[in-house]
Design a protein that fits this description.
40% of the residues lie in helices and 19% in strands. It is α/β, with parallel strands linked by helices. The protein folds into two domains: 139 residues, NAD(P)-binding Rossmann-like Domain (Rossmann fold, 3-Layer(aba) Sandwich), CATH 3.40.50; 157 residues, Lactate dehydrogenase/glycoside hydrolase, family 4, C-terminal (L-2-Hydroxyisocaproate Dehydrogenase, Chain A, domain 2, Alpha-Beta Complex). Strand 5, helix 4 and strand 6 form a beta-alpha-beta unit. Helix 3 runs parallel beside helix 4 and helix 4 packs across helix 8. The chain is globular, with a radius of gyration of 19 Å. It starts with a strand and ends with a helix.
Length: 306
C-alpha cells in the first residue's frame, strides 16, 4: 500500500482536531503538523502520538516544516484566528489574507503535487485566493465549503423528523456564510421527499445557520465539527471513494456561473474534485444560489485589494 501522508498547516483548534481525527481513522500513515509557533506544533504532535498508544494501528504523527508539502498527498490549510464575539466569517477576511500572503511566500519554493484543502475563513474567498496565489489546478485546490453546513443540516433534520442522519440525503449550497442556501427540493428522507414532512423552510435554515453561532458564543471557537469534516474529506480523497460531498469549487459555467468558488455537490476521489454536479433546483432556489454567488464574488473582489 502507498504510504499516505497528510500535512496540516496551522496547529490551532481546527488543525489539531483534524490531526487527531486523521490519526484515529486509519486515514494516513503519516500526519505532519506545521505552525508558525513550532513549539505548539511539536506539542500537539507529541500529544496525539501519545494517544496512539491506545489504538490498534500505527500512525506517525510529528511536527515538520513547509518542505513537507512536496511529498504530501493532501495538504490541509487551517491557519487563522478564531472568530471574535459578534464577528461573521467575512469580518475575518483582511487578517486571513495577510496570513495567506505570508503562507504562500513560504510555500512557493516547493513543488506541490498533492491535493490542497482550505478551511480558513471566509472559506470560499480564501480558497480562491490560495488557488490563484499557488497556481494550483482548481480540481486539486478547493475549500471545505458547505460540508460543515451540511453536517448541521443533517443534524437539524434528524432532530426534527426523528429519522437517523444515515437515512437523510441533502446538502447546503452557496457561501459558507450568511448567504448559504438549502435546495429543499433535493432533500430525501428515508425515500420520502422533504415536502412529505411538515417542516418550516425558514426554521430549518435558521437552525442550520445558527449552529455555528451557538458554538462560537458558547466556547469562542469551532473545532470538532470542522476538524472532523476536514479529516473525513481527506479520507475520501486518499481512499479514492468517489463520494458526493459539497465543497467550495471553482465553477466553469455550471449553474450559469463562472469563475467563483462556491459550495456545490462534487464527486470527490483520488484526483480531488473529479466532477462538479449540476443538480436541478426550483426557480426560487436558483435565485438564492445566484445571490450567494454574487455575495462571494463581491468578497473575492474586495480580497484582491488587500
Amino acid at each position: 500500500m502507498k504510504h499516505r501522508k497528510v500535512l496540516i498547516i496551522g496547529a490551532g483548534h481546527v488543525g489539531s482536531h483534524a490531526a487527531l481525527s486523521l490519526a484515529l481513522d486509519r486515514t494516513a500513515e503519516e500526519v505532519v503538523l506545521v505552525d508558525k509557533d513550532m513549539q505548539k506544533a511539536e506539542a500537539h504532535a507529541l500529544d496525539i502520538y501519545d494517544a496512539m498508544s491506545f489504538s490498534d494501528h500505527s500512525v506517525l504523527v510529528r511536527a515538520g516544516d513547509y518542505a513537507d508539502a512536496e511529498d504530501a498527498d493532501v495538504i490541509i490549510i487551517a491557519i487563522g484566528e478564531s472568530r471574535k464575539p459578534g464577528q461573521d466569517r467575512v469580518d475575518m477576511m483582511a487578517d486571513s489574507i495577510v496570513m495567506c500572503k505570508e503562507l504562500t511566500a513560504s510555500l512557493k519554493p516547493y513543488n506541490i503535487s498533492g491535493i490542497v484543502i482550505s478551511i480558513t475563513n471566509p472559506c470560499d474567498v480564501i480558497a480562491d485566493y490560495l488557488r490563484k496565489a499557488l497556481g494550483i489546478d482548481d480540481r486539486r485546490m478547493f475549500g471545505t465549503g458547505t460540508l460543515l453546513d451540511t453536517a448541521r443540516l443533517l443534524r437539524v433534520l434528524s432532530l426534527k423528523t426523528g429519522v437517523s442522519r444515515d437515512s437523510i440525503q441533502g446538502f447546503v449550497m452557496g457561501e459558507h456564510g450568511e448567504s448559504s442556501m438549502i435546495p429543499y427540493s433535493r432533500i430525501h428522507i428515508g425515500g420520502l421527499r422533504y415536502a412529505d414532512f411538515s417542516l418550516s423552510d425558514e426554521e430549518v435554515l435558521h437552525d442550520v445557520r445558527r449552529g455555528g453561532w451557538i458554538v462560537m458564543e458558547g466556547k469562542k471557537c469551532t473545532e470538532f465539527g470542522i476538524g472532523r469534516a476536514a479529516a473525513y474529506l481527506t479520507g475520501v480523497i486518499l481512499r479514492g471513494e468517489k463520494k458526493i460531498l459539497p465543497v467550495s469549487a471553482n465553477l466553469h459555467g455550471e449553474y450559469g456561473e463562472d469563475d467563483v468558488m462556491i459550495g456545490v455537490p462534487c464527486v470527490i476521489g483520488g484526483e480531488g474534485i473529479e466532477k462538479v454536479l449540476e443538480v436541478s433546483m426550483t426557480d426560487g432556489e436558483k435565485e438564492q444560489f445566484h445571490h450567494s454567488c454574487e455575495v462571494v464574488r463581491g468578497n473575492i473582489a474586495k480580497a484582491a485589494l488587500i
